Amino acid sequence: MGRGPGERVSIDHLDLPQLCAARGTVHLPGSKSLSNRLLLLAALATGRTELGDLLLSDDTARMLAALRILGVGVEPGEGKALCITGVAGDFPVRAADLFLGNAGTAFRPLTAVLALARGDYCLSGVPRMHERPIGDLVDALRQLGAQINYQGVEGFPPLRIRPPMPCSNDVVQVRGDVSSQFLTGLLMALPLRGIETTVEVVGELISRPYIDITLASMARFGVEVRRDGWRRFTVPAGSAYRSPGLVQVEGDASSASYFLALGAIGGGPLRVEGIGPDSIQGDVRFADALSAMGARISAGAHWIEAAAPLVGRLRGIDLDCNHIPDAAMTLATTALFADGPTTLRHIASWRVKETDRIAAMATELRKLGASVEEGADYLRIDPPVGGLHAAAIDTYDDHRMAMACSLAALGTPLRINDPQTVAKTFPDYFARFAEVGQAVPVIAIDGTSASGKGTIAIRVAQALGWHYLDSGALYRLTALAARHAGTAWDDEDTVAAIAAGLDVEFGDHAIILAGEEVSDAIRSEEISVGASRVAALPAVRAALLFRQRAFRRSPGLVADGRDMGSVVFPDAMIKVFLTASAEMRAMRRHKQLIEKGMAASIADLLLDLRERDERDSQRSVAPMQQSADAELLDTTNHTIDSAVAQVLDWVSKGLQKR
Q1: Where is the Cytidylate kinase domain (predicted)?
Q2: Fold exhibited by the domain 473-551
Q3: Does the structure show a pLDDT above 90 at 2?
Q4: Ramachandran angles phi, psi of 565, nearest 5°
Q5: Which residues are catalytically annotated?
Q6: Tell me, what's the pLDDT at 5?
Q7: Do the beta carbons of residue 517 and residue 469 sit within 8 Å?
Q8: Would you say 168 is a known binding-site residue?
Q9: Is 179 annotated as a binding residue?
Q10: d(CA 247, CA 250)
Q11: What is the pTM of this model?
């Protein structure tokens, strides 16, 4: 996954800074729904098909791996295209085990096609795939003579498929109210029968736009399905797939929704390229939903653009989402930025996706401070009063949870757990996200002890009207809390647990720890030594990392402390490293202590500062040193006013470059 400015990627999480704006242009990856349909149709067709702008992701990788195992020819074409040599409906490999991960767009259609083929196949996936129902599709295929056995729980994968029994039935029934992929799979498989076959849909057909995609894709390969409303679909006798030669895959309309919403919330304009308003993908109508919320939408043949309302905020809506089942997830997080509640209806299909998306979305939106009412097929979202809460978002091994929830970064810093899940459909999503998002600016001020960091940082924050973070206070609080708990400062695991659970409140003139005012207590020499020691523990620094990043709020942050510019905010707009002679710093510290009525010796303070400098510069974690991209300011001969003026001058120049 690509890395963009303002992002910190690890194996298990990604921290997103709060964004103050979003604008620019994004070229979309190919549609997942189209890519896997076209891959399978090209494989079943007569002739060679070149697929341009094909999505390269986990889902399409599963389909391609399965097709190769089945004997389909797959070769690189021009540029990023792939060439598929079709098998004319007859797979050369008659026995195979196929692992399809959590790719429903591969599992369901392949189940139908292989059930009407003449082979012995086993289909399996990840544990979540084995929890996604497939019984309605299997029941329909059995009406056509298919021999399918469940290898685990009845009605769910994994499946064992054997050659079908002779069958002359020309009408088959399938439920339409669980997943449109069942009907899609049936329709794509029926040309293999050679006889006219009609599919009757039982119950209401959900996600109808995806059936439009299926019918349009089949037509491109020469099979015209007759449709009688949304109840009857007939595949004529003698239907067979023929390669159209070159096929360009449209950009993914579901993926477009995230960036269109970013533009509508974050000011914009933000343009997505690779898809236009006449797309065959139903999710393109997400733009209409944004328009109903007050966003400004414009479009051309191959692009759509979104911007925020000229006046005021977006407004909540009440919407039947049957026509945009996947993109509707993006509306759930867009609702956080609207005036009034938003209700999303007719979304029962979310329950049987990569996760139970209704339950998952309700859980994560509540973490952000929203009030959420969850029903069998609807969500009602009331945006939080007083702004979004910083939160760690769980993604449930679901790419759309990761991408949809990322929009909340326009209101708060976020941690996205398991961000790699976006590889299912949009491997470089977070890199593109960072390119169009403008992060809240940060000024990182570091330096030697008693060099004036805190005083200067506070004054700079006050002058700008920005937030202030005294990161040292968090380490001091950790040291004090460990002392209160009777924990040794070198007990890394226990101290890290204390840091992660700090019960602290920062007021204008007070710091409260577990209900106790501790502003003076954390400034004692003993706790200063303890803070230096606990700050050298990697587990403690990791425990406090997101807590520090959560201070990055609009309109900006001045962050004071060690590794603010190198680790916590590596994309800080301005980085400043303060220093001063040890003698001057000892005099300053002595003056501070005397003013507080505390006895102190300049000689002792000087010795302590020199020992601390040595210890801080030699430690393995976050050693005290000037970053290569930091401005150096020696405050030995500076007044506080002149030092603040110098920092503000650097800030002014930095803001002009943004």
Answers
A1: 443-651
A2: Rossmann fold (3.40.50)
A3: no
A4: -90, -15
A5: 326
A6: 35
A7: no
A8: no
A9: yes
A10: 9
A11: 0.86
Residue 593: HSE in the Cβ half-sphere, 13 Å Cα cutoff: 17
Residue 271 CA to residue 640 CA, distance in Å, equals 46
Strand order in the sheet with 574-579: 467-470, 557-560, 442-447, 574-579, 631-634
DSSP 3-state of 453: helix
Query: What's domain 13-28+251-438's architecture?
Result: Alpha-beta prism (3.65)
In whole angstroms, give the CA distance from residue 584 to residue 581.
5
CA angle (368 as vertex; 10, 268 as ends), nearest 5: 80
Residue 582's pLDDT band (boundaries 50, 70, 90)? confident
Q: What is the DSSP letter of 506?
A: E
Per-residue CA distances from 627 to 70, 440, 604, 647 (Å): 55, 21, 30, 16
357 marked as part of a ligand binding site: yes
Token reading at 102: 């959590």
| 216 within 8 A of 249, measured Cβ to Cβ | no
| Domain map (residue ranges) of the chain | 13-28+251-438, 41-248, 440-466+555-657, 473-551
8 Å CB contact between 179 and 207 = yes
Q: Quick one: tokens of 564?
A: 């603010």
In the chain, % helix, strand, coil (3-state, to 5) comes to: 40, 25, 35
Q: Is the dihedral of CA 540, 542, 544, 548 positive or negative?
A: positive
33 is in an annotated binding site: yes
Cβ proximity of 405 and 393 under 8 Å? yes
CATH architecture for residues 440-466+555-657: 3-Layer(aba) Sandwich (3.40)
Query: Which of these ranges, 272-281, 480-489, 518-527, has the smallest mean pLDDT?
Result: 518-527
Check whether 524 is labelled as a binding-site residue: no
- Return the ∠ at Cα 79 (arms to 76 and 82), rounded to 5°: 30
| Residue among 141, 84, 143, 85 nearest 114 (CA) | 141
Give the pLDDT confidence of 80-136 residue by residue, as tens digits. 789 999 999 999 999 999 999 999 999 999 999 999 999 999 999 999 999 999 999
Q: Confidence band (pLDDT; 50, 70, 90) for 621?
A: low
| Most confidently modeled range among 265-274, 538-547, 623-632 | 265-274
What's residue 580's pLDDT? 81
Structure tokens at 260: 């269109």
Mean pLDDT calculated for residue range 13-25:
97
Q: Which of 103, 181, 107 is nearest to 397 (CA)?
A: 103
CATH of 41-248, one of 3.10.560.10, 3.20.20.370, 3.65.10.10, 3.40.1410.10: 3.65.10.10
Least confident among 148-162, 201-215, 361-375, 572-586: 572-586
pLDDT given for residue 611 in this prediction? 76
pLDDT band at 622 (very low <50, low <70, confident <90, very high): low
Between the alpha carbon of residue 198 and those of residues 218, 228, 236, 475, 635, the distances in Å are 16, 10, 9, 70, 84
Helix (H, G, I), strand (E, B) or coil at 183: helix
pLDDT in tens, 390-424: 999 999 999 999 999 999 999 999 999 999 999 99
Instruction: Look at residue 180 and give its three-state secondary structure.
Output: helix
Torsion of CA 85, 90, 94, 100, to 10 degrees: 60
Same CATH topology for 41-248 and 473-551: the answer is no
- Strands 232-235 and 226-228, by their bridges, are antiparallel
